[in-house]
Design a protein that fits this description.
Keywords: Membrane, Transmembrane, Transmembrane helix
Number of domains: 1
Shape: elongated
Strand content: under 5%
Radius of gyration: 21 Å
Largest sheet: none
Order of helices and strands: HHH
Number of helices: 3
């Protein structure tokens, strides 16, 4: 599978789970409302996951770059 196909499959699975959660977790929510709410929630959840990965990668990169050298490197 290509990266695009994996992303599409993940988004579809996330959408299906969101529809089921919204439909059966809150009382009185119909299928139409659940489908529309999941349509809003799915891109938001995907964006939040992307943002978390991006911030983690940037934190790792900033952790590698230090203004002052590590104490072990100063002794050399």
């Amino acid at each position: 599978m290509t990266k695009w196909q994996k992303t599409a499959a993940y988004a579809l699975a996330l959408y299906a789970v969101a529809v089921l959660m919204i439909r059966f977790s809150s009382g009185g929510t119909g299928w139409g409302t659940a489908l529309l709410l999941a349509l809003v929630a799915t891109p938001l959840a995907l964006w939040m996951g992307w943002l978390r990965n991006r911030l983690s990668e940037q934190a790792q990169e900033w952790g590698r770059r230090r203004v002052r050298p590590w104490p072990e490197e100063r002794r050399r």
